[in-house]
Amino acid sequence: MHDTDMWNKASFLTRLVASSVRVSEAAGNAIKSVMAGGDLKIVDKSSNGEPADPQTEADRRAQFLIIKSLSERFGNIRIIGEEDVTSECDTVENTFSNEVLRLEDEMSQDLKSIKPEEVVVWVDPLDGTSEVALAVKNKNEALLEQVTVLIGIAYHGRPVAGVIHQPYHRGTGRTIWAIKGCGVHGLVPASAQKERIVVTTRSHLNQNVLDALDSLKGKGLACGVEKFGGAGFK
């Protein structure tokens, strides 16, 4: 079956996820482009007395690309992005993932019947901004592995699909995506470990988190702690 035939026969949700996979990858390329240029144009979004909340040109440009691409493809679907301010870019991604379209027959009828006006698309264009800023400041490219582009799809307030793109994963990047009832794709499962390792925030540690970690260790429920940035990377 030709690509256009698969697209034409697919339900709305399948098309939305298929497009979101490619759009997330295009956003990842936009992030890399800003990083390669060297000028992140960092601003602090935090209010007085709050912890620093950096935003970069990569955040702004990636969100503009995502919203513009999905809006041009699907019309007036509701999209909520993390950033209030964006930066225009010329790129509009209009391709789609055939791998996603091939799952059409595995989806439940309830998901196939979802209409555009019934979904909300949630966008975090660059999850791990603190790691980006720190990677540039300290010239520590290893931190960029923790950067992700996140696109989540909710139906009547419940998550039904999502995309995580890691632009810096092993140099070339990878995209992980899932649709309810159809499994997780793009991820190689790690083998089970006997040790109980707690994974927690690297850049937003506070006393409540530290107290919780101490409690887990005290009860023998954790034997180690790993700190990473970005919800998507965790």
TrEMBL record:
Coiled coil: none annotated. This is 3'(2'),5'-bisphosphate nucleotidase. Its cofactor is Mg(2+). It comes from the Eukaryota. Its EC number is 3.1.3.7. Mg(2+) binds at residues 82, 124, 126-127. Gene3D superfamilies: Fructose-1,6-Bisphosphatase, subunit A, domain 1. Keywords: Magnesium, Metal-binding. InterPro entries: CysQ/Inositol_MonoPase, Inositol_monophosphatase-like. It is an enzyme of class 3 (hydrolase). Belongs to the inositol monophosphatase superfamily.
